Amino acid sequence: MKETKSLEFKSEVTNTFLKTVSAYANYGTGEILFGVRDDGTPCGINNPEKVCLDLENRINDSILPKPDFTLRINSQNNTIALKVSEGLDKPYLYKGKAYKRNDTSTIEVDRGELNRLTLLGTGKYYDELPAGNSELKFTILEKELQAKLGIKKLTKDICRTLNLYYSKDRFNNAGELLADTNSFPGIDIAKFGSSNDVILDRELIKNVSVIEQFAKAIKLFRRYYVYEQIKGAERITKEQIPEKAFREALANALVHRTWDINANIRVLMYTDKIEIVSPGGLPLGVSKEEYLKGYVSVLRNPTLGNVFF
Questions:
Q1: In this structure, are 174 and 193 located in the same domain?
Q2: Could you read off the pLDDT of 41-64 as tens digits, one per residue?
Q3: Within this chain, do residues 40 and 70 fall inside the same structural domain, yes or no?
Q4: What is the DSSP track for the chain?
């Protein structure tokens, strides 16, 4: 037995375990075993019943809000198992700070991640928060909706139906992201030649509607990966890389990225492949294994995702 992201060993009781309690309550259920050495061998705890009461008091006095946890004594080796469940009232703070597990260690979260935890605790998403810019125009979005849905004009009622308002007269971040101009980062595209040292083309698309970002990136893709081949009397369109796959990956990068990070999506175009790097890690509640196997899908920006859908 060895330590993991969801399992920690403590040979004795010190207040450092409270950081891990915060981490499990914030980011995923986990267990702390007291009376167990770092190598996983039991060393036991003296008077485990009294220690359990002490652990309970320390958690209740030190973690805000109070997390959901259980204590269990193994009478065969005098070890104590503390199981902490992930809570809904995030963030769970120890001495005013929130923590997370980083492999087998516990670390403090940064300010941006703390803000996201707070949003989760209130049941809100970043794209639902009020926009910083109140003077927004939607020429590009209107044209897209005219083409796709046959509307005549983008009205306030349609904007409300799309959930682009934070309040009666104020747009949210999703609205600003879809506006003709905005204050958000964008997409940084580089086309390489025979090596990474040879840059054939470079384009930075930012501070414009995510719809325009998407369209310009597709246009650049077609410049380098779509060509025509003449066979007899026919002109056939060929794709070096499937455009459908690129469109899907790029749309996912825009919809699921963390928009409160001031960094651009990076699109690296090579002769035989394209790499897309989207700012932000996996959404809370999704493990690497679940993501790779496609078991779970979590919308980080549901309003923006719905418009793209």
A1: no
A2: 999 999 999 999 999 999 999 999
A3: yes
A4: ---BTTEEEESS--TTHHHHHHHHHHH--EEEEETB-TTS-B---SSHHHHHHHHHHHHHHHEESPPEEEEEEETTTTEEEEEEEPPSSPPPEETTEEEEEETTEEEE--HHHHHHHHHHHTT--GGGSBPS------HHHHHHHHHHH--SS--HHHHHHTT-EEETTEEBHHHHHHSSB-S---EEEEEE-SSTT-EEEEEEE-SB-HHHHHHHHHHHHHHHHEEEEEETTEEEEEESS-HHHHHHHHHHHHHHS-TTS---EEEEE-SS-EEEE-SS-PPTT--HHHHHHT-----SSHHHHHHH-
Evaluate whether residue 250 is within a structural domain.
Answer: yes
Within-domain flag for 1 = no
Q: What digits encode the pLDDT tens for the residues 19-49?
A: 999 999 998 899 999 999 999 999 999 999 9
Same domain (yes/no): 198, 168? no
Residue 192 lies in domain: 187-308
Intervals of the chain under pLDDT 70: 284-285, 295-296
Q: Tell whether 174 is covered by a domain.
A: yes
State the pLDDT at residue 67: 96
